[in-house]
Amino acid sequence: MPLTDKFGRSIRDLRISITDRCNYKCVYCRSGSDGPQFPEMAIDEYLRIARVFVGLGITKVRLTGGEPLLRNGLVEMVSELARMRTVESGALDIAITTNGHLLEDMAQPLADAGLSRVTVSMDAVDPGRFARITRVPNGFEQVLAGVRAAQRPGLNPVKINCVLLRGLNDDQITAFGRFARDEGVIVRFIEFMPLEEDRVWSPEIVVTLHEILQRMAEFMPLREVQHAHSETARRYLFEDGVGEIGIVAPVSHPFCGHCSRVRVTSDGKIRTCLFSVREHDLAAVMESGASDDELADFICRVIDHKEARHHIGEPGFVPASRTMVHIGG
Question: Which domains does the chain have, with CATH numbers?
Answer without folding.
Answer: 13-327 (3.20.20.70)
